[in-house]
Each structure stands twice: as structure tokens, then as C-alpha cells.
Specification:
The protein has 15 helices and 29 strands. It is an alpha+beta fold.
């Protein structure tokens, strides 16, 4: 396939000084972040309020909507609306104060942690959301470790201050001691729960008084100076004195604010507020945009790729089927890493080497889409996926480049997925293949060719329920699950040749994944340990190796 005249002109413009200046301005304008938290910490509520302040929506909806209250924007899937939880990642782009913000909303439920891992691969910053009453929770800790592995800057928002909670100093101490992460409180709460009166900004010495806004609307932020006589009429003396004493303690014993340490992932700015009542969200967003890093260089086969590289590069970090059930579409989410993306541009697909024209790019806003003409580093675009893309694929123009792949993690629950209705096999096959592509669940296959029913391999039980629900509602196929008595999976490093050298093995089941790589299933950790002791030359991995140059098998 050859480039059209317009493509050649666009490529030529890459060498133009005006283009480089335009690219630099676009990169400086962009901020990109994901929100990580434990379930019920208020992540989706905070997401809605950020969109509200960014002007992207006019009214925010709480996750547990009642009566006339609208559903949340970021939870678009029917099962999300039914259960009041986020079970899939979404992308939300909006403008705020001359900044283009790409917000990557992630599932909070631990059963969907792999979707969150993939989304964090596309993030430049992360917001760690904590419930003031619960502090750090298990899922938050796990996701923090992923951020640390990628050196992603962390911004902490301690939520639900209008409810009884832990002491603020204890919350900071927990972050520092358990995560080995220094903290700097940007603002400080006056009271908590029923006695929550607002926060003190440590730099401006402004006091933001707490008042509950009308549900779903922007709160009225009343601010006073610390030395304003009216403040003492509005806030009890003992609450104000305690807050000031704690701030003084932080000034003496706390860390100093250092933007370089924040961007290195060694210091987290901390904000206190209440997302549900809209309190503290705007000050947080303003401070975040000042301190967060813009699009950063990404590791590739050619070394770090700077966002200012003149030619386009990007990678697929998420696939989603049936975002628009009326059209049975499949969308590949692509993080733009360098250069300028343009509608109808011709790129290469690094894994297969094929040349493709990207003719129908979309700007994603939860379930809503609009045609996008161009995009820049930090942006996320949606591409129609005819089955060509896999998670981790690199797209590029110019000199070949391939970004680090996104690994699959070891599942813990395994079930046969049975289709009791042979007449529905075509839909069953299509549904399973499309849900596998998007990573809704891992699919394994028996090496016995006569047993072609897929094995669903999941991190949590809810993943399996979602797959069954979606097969029934999106593909009109009712299925049943038959548990398999295994709890541990390991990929064989070196593939089939390494396995053949060992010969016959016991107390495990050999299956293959969608890329035809051998996977061993064990009933428990003891069986795994025994095999490794008996076969020290056999190397096993919790993480699936990244593939290149091959296509996955289908049902």
C-alpha cells in the first residue's frame, strides 16, 4: 500500500519548524492520569466530580443512583449500572484551564485488577484515593506497587472527610511507613465527620469552609484568610487550634514540597476533601495540574522514545467489545506516545509488519465517541478493531519501533465454559473470541484437540460472572460454568521444547493459552513446589511472556 499525496505532505511537514513548535505546544498542554483505589473508596464519584469541574458534564451522578438521580458517566456497561461498581476501564478527555486532560478511569474491584494494570501502562500520573475511615486497603497497596514499578508519580486524595475517620496524622504516617513514600499535605483538615469544618491551604493560608452542595452540583467555595475575624465565628476555637498545631508540627517534622521528587515517585502531595459533596475537588485539580508531569518518554526496542519524536508512535493498552451494542463494534484503545496522529494516516503494525490505514479514529468519552482528526502524546484514541489488534501492540510511522509489551498475570480460578445450545455455536465462538481479545478474561485450551470448549481463567469470581452476563446480553448465548479443581497457573519459560525435555510430569494439567504457549495448572502451591524441586532445570513464570510476530488462536 502506498501513501496518498496528502499523506506525503503530512510526512514532509514533520521536518517543518512550525510543526515542531506546534507539537511542543500540544505536548505541554496535556496531562494524563489514572485513579487507583480500593472498592467503595469513592473513585467513580471523584471521577464524576472532576468531569463536573472540567465542564465536561453539567451534573454528576453518584454510583448508587436513586430515583431521579442520573447514572454516572464513566460506568456505561449495563452490569455496572446494575451493581453500582466499575468493572471496566474507560477514557474521559476534557479541557480545563487551557489543559487537555486524559482521565483513565479504572475498575476498583480486585477481580478486575488486570484491567487496571493494563490501563496504568498508559498513564503518566496516578491519583491514589483513600477512604479517611479505612486508610490504606489491600487493593490500593497492590496498585501502588504497579505504579512504583513504572515510577509513576502519585497524588493522594483522602476522601470522605465529612464522615468519622482516622486521625489525619495517622493517615500520613500509614502511607509513609507502609508504602515507604514521603508525604506532603497541601491542605489540612479542620475537624472530621460531623465536626468537619473545612481545610487550611498551607501556602496561601486561606481557609476553605465546608458546605454541602446540592447533589451533583458544583459546591460554593467560601474562603477566608486565617486572620479574618469572621473565621472564629464560623469555626469552633478548639477545632481550629488543633488544626493549626498539627500544621506547625508538619512544618517542623514533615517533608518539604519538591516537584522533582513528586515526579520521581518519591513524594506524594496529599489533599483532604469529600468527593460526594464536591468539597476540595477543584483545589485538588488546580494543584494537580501544576505539579503533575506531562507526557513522558516510553521504553521501546530503540530505547526511550521522546514525545517530541517527529513521527507517530503509540501502543494498544485496552480492547473493548460492544461499547455500542447496536453496532457490535470492537474498539482498540491506543495511547499516543510521540509525534502527531492524523485521521487517515498510514502506519505499520509492529507485531505483524502489516501496513494499515487508520481511517476511523475516535475520541473516547466513556461510551460516547466522536471522530477525531488528530491527537498528540498523552491522548488516547479509539480505533475500530477488525480482529487485527492485541493488547500491547505497537503502531508506528517512520523508523520501526516496538514498545514493551503488557504482560498477563497468573489467574487463580479455572472453569470450563460450556455452550449447551449447539445452534448458538457461531455466536458463542464470536463472543468468546472477542472477550478474549479485550482481556475480559484469559482463555486456555486443552491440548486434546477433541476437547475444544474453552477454559476461563480469571483472577476473581466476578470476572466469570461478567463473561457469562455479556455472552447472554451481547451475543444471545446462555452458558454454564464447570469448575476445574486447580488454583495455580504457571507459564513454561522456553515453551514446548523446555517442557518436552522434562518428559512426563505428574500432579498438574498441561494446557495452552491463546498464543499456543504451554501453561501448567496445579491444584495448590504444594504441587507446584514439588514439581520445581523435582525438576530444577524447568523454569516457570507467574507472568505470561510478551508475544511478537504471531497471532492468537481462536476458538
Amino acid at each position: 500500500m502506498t501513501s496518498s499525496t496528502s499523506d506525503l505532505e503530512a510526512q514532509k511537514s514533520f521536518n517543518d519548524d512550525n510543526f515542531l513548535k506546534h507539537l511542543e505546544e500540544a505536548v505541554k498542554k496535556r496531562k494524563n492520569f489514572a485513579i487507583i483505589s480500593h472498592p467503595d473508596a469513592g473513585k467513580t464519584t471523584l471521577t464524576e466530580k472532576l468531569l463536573l469541574y472540567g465542564g465536561a458534564i453539567q451534573q454528576a451522578g453518584a454510583v448508587k443512583a436513586r430515583g431521579e438521580q442520573r447514572k454516572v458517566t464513566s460506568d456505561w456497561m449495563e452490569l455496572e449500572k446494575q451493581r453500582g461498581i466499575s468493572i471496566t476501564s474507560t477514557v474521559l478527555q476534557f479541557e480545563y484551564n487551557d489543559t487537555t486532560i486524559n482521565l483513565l478511569d479504572t475498575p476498583g474491584h480486585q477481580d478486575f485488577s488486570e484491567d487496571t494494570y493494563r490501563t496504568l501502562a498508559a498513564a503518566d500520573n496516578a491519583v491514589m484515593l483513600e477512604d479517611a475511615a479505612k486508610g490504606l486497603e489491600p487493593q490500593t497497596r497492590k496498585l501502588f506497587e504497579v505504579c512504583r514499578l513504572r515510577n509513576i508519580p502519585i497524588f493522594t486524595f483522602i476522601n470522605k472527610m465529612d464522615r468519622p475517620g482516622l486521625e489525619p496524622l495517622s493517615l500520613l504516617d500509614e502511607i509513609e511507613s507502609e508504602l515507604d513514600l514521603a508525604t506532603f499535605a497541601i491542605n489540612w483538615p479542620i475537624g472530621s465527620g460531623d465536626f468537619f469544618r473545612g481545610v487550611i491551604d498551607r501556602y496561601s493560608k486561606n481557609v476553605f469552609l465546608f458546605s454541602k452542595a446540592e447533589r451533583g452540583k458544583q459546591s460554593i467555595e467560601r474562603r477566608l484568610k486565617l486572620d479574618d475575624p469572621e473565621l472564629h465565628q464560623l469555626v469552633e476555637k478548639d477545632l481550629l487550634d488543633k488544626a493549626l498545631e498539627e500544621i506547625e508540627l508538619l512544618e517542623v517534622a514533615g517533608a518539604e514540597l519538591n516537584v522533582e521528587l513528586i515526579r520521581a515517585g518519591e513524594l506524594t502531595p496529599v489533599f483532604f476533601g469529600s468527593a460526594m459533596t464536591n468539597f476540595g475537588v477543584r483545589p485538588f485539580l488546580d494543584s494537580f495540574l501544576k505539579m503533575a508531569q506531562g507526557p513522558v518518554a516510553r521504553i521501546s526496542s530503540q530505547g526511550p522514545i521522546d514525545p517530541m519524536r517527529e513521527t507517530f508512535t503509540g501502543f494498544v493498552f485496552k480492547l473493548q467489545a460492544n461499547m455500542d451494542p447496536r453496532h457490535r463494534d470492537r474498539v482498540a484503545f491506543v495511547r499516543v506516545c510521540s509525534g502527531r496522529f492524523q485521521k487517515d494516516m498510514i502506519v505499520r503494525h509492529a507485531r505483524t509488519g502489516k501496513t494499515i490505514r487508520l481511517s476511523r479514529p475516535q475520541k473516547i468519552f466513556a461510551q460516547d465517541r466522536a471522530v477525531v482528526e488528530d491527537a498528540y502524546p498523552g491522548d488516547v484514541i479509539g480505533l475500530n478493531n477488525p480482529g487485527m489488534f492485541a493488547i500491547g501492540d505497537t503502531l508506528y510511522s517512520g523508523k520501526r519501533v516496538e514498545y514493551e509489551g503488557i504482560p498477563c498475570f497468573s489467574p487463580e480460578i479455572f472453569c470450563w465454559l460450556r455452550n449447551p445450545n449447539p445452534s448458538a455455536f457461531k455466536n458463542f465462538k464470536k463472543g468468546v473470541n472477542e472477550l478474549r481479545e479485550e482481556g475480559a478474561v484469559q482463555i486456555l485450551y486443552d491440548i486434546d484437540q477433541s476437547k475444544r470448549d474453552p477454559i476461563l481463567a480469571a483472577v476473581g469470581q466476578l470476572q466469570l460472572e461478567v463473561v457469562q452476563h455479556r455472552l447472554e446480553n451481547e451475543y444471545s448465548v446462555k452458558t454454564r460454568l464447570e469448575p476445574i479443581g486447580f488454583q495455580v497457573a504457571r507459564w513454561v519459560v522456553g515453551g514446548w521444547p523446555s517442557l518436552k525435555k522434562i518428559g512426563r510430569i505428574f500432579n498438574c494439567k498441561t494446557v495452552q493459552d491463546s498464543w499456543e504457549r504451554p501453561v501448567l495448572l496445579f491444584k495448590n502451591q504444594w504441587n507446584l513446589n514439588q514439581l520445581e524441586e523435582d525438576n530444577p532445570s524447568l523454569s516457570l513464570s507467574k507472568v505470561a511472556p510478551v508475544v511478537s510476530g504471531v497471532n492468537p488462536i481462536n476458538l
